[in-house]
Amino acid sequence: MTDIDKKELLKNRKVVEEINRHLWIESEKAGSDISFETASEDWLKKFSKAWMEYHMQDSDVFQGSQVSKKSTKRSNKAKK
């Protein structure tokens, strides 16, 4: 993942929520607060790929597509 990709992800409110959740969990494990920067680097390294695959699928913000597989699946179910 490039630095540009990381910066784009960090603009996403849901990603920041996930990183804050990761920050809380990792701080609990460490027994003291870790920084947002540390938590974000760790989250991006460990979880960003899976997060993007699940949440963004075909609607990748880097490609500008507005249609996701989830909405396509919903519309296909409605046609049946």
Describe this structure in words.
The protein is elongated and about 35 Å long. It is mainly α. The chain has helices spanning 3-10, 13-30, 36-46, 48-55, 69-79. The chain has five helices and no strands. The model is unreliable at 62-75 (pLDDT under 50). The protein has one domain (3-79).
Outline the secondary-structure elements:
Elements: H1 3-10, H2 13-30, H3 36-46, H4 48-55, H5 69-79
Helix pairs in contact: 2-3
Features:
80 residues; mainly alpha; 70% helix; elongated
TL;DR?
With about 80 residues, the chain is mainly α. The protein has helices at about 5-10, 15-30, 35-45, 50-55, 70-80.
The H-and-E topology, N to C, reads as HHHHH
| Helix coverage percent | over 70%
Number of domains: 1
List unreliable stretches of 5+ residues: 62-75
Structural class: mainly alpha
Largest sheet: none
Shape: elongated
Number of strands: 0
Using only C-alpha atoms, the radius of gyration works out to 16 Å
Approximate strand percentage: under 5%
